[in-house]
Design brief:
Elements: H1 2-8, E1 18-23, H2 24-28, H3 34-48, E2 53-58, E3 72-75, E4 79-83, E5 88-91, H4 94-109, H5 114-128
Parallel strand pairs: 1-2
Antiparallel strand pairs: 3-4, 4-5
Helix pairs in contact: 3-5
């Protein structure tokens, strides 16, 4: 828990910008009791308000035409970390990083931001209260 809180501190320091896309299904997937889930969803609302954070929700009704993918994190178009069931892959080849950049752009094109994303999160919170 302490490590998770320390990782989040990067959102408050420096000048870096962060862009997150979360699938709407994740908002409804139970990873703990309702009070814990409500706290996590509230944390998303708080993060959305940060000036250097762009947090969007990919609606469950979105039509995604890209390749199947696992969770991944891009770092300044220099590094991609891909999480699989059995391993964490580190991608450093520019061509491969560019492919993940295109994939992220595909996801962002169908993602809801701002008030639309906030409403999706608030609906998920309301279902747990």
């Amino acid at each position: 828990m302490t490590a998770r809180i320390e990782r989040q501190q990067v959102l408050y320091r420096g000048t870096r910008r962060f862009s997150f896309v979360i699938a709407e299904q994740v908002l409804h997937t139970t990873a703990g009791q309702d009070p814990v889930m409500v706290e996590q969803l509230d944390r998303l609302l708080t993060a959305m308000a940060l000036p250097r954070v762009q947090l969007g929700i990919l609606p469950s009704a979105a039509i995604y035409e890209g390749p199947a993918t696992n969770s991944f994190v891009m770092y300044d178009n220099k590094l991609v970390i891909v999480e699989t069931v059995t391993a964490e892959l580190t991608i450093t080849q520019p061509r491969e990083i560019a492919l993940y950049g295109k994939l992220f752009d595909l996801l962002r094109a169908q993602t809801s931001y701002g008030e639309a994303a906030r409403i999706l999160i608030q609906k998920a919170i309301a279902q747990r209260r």
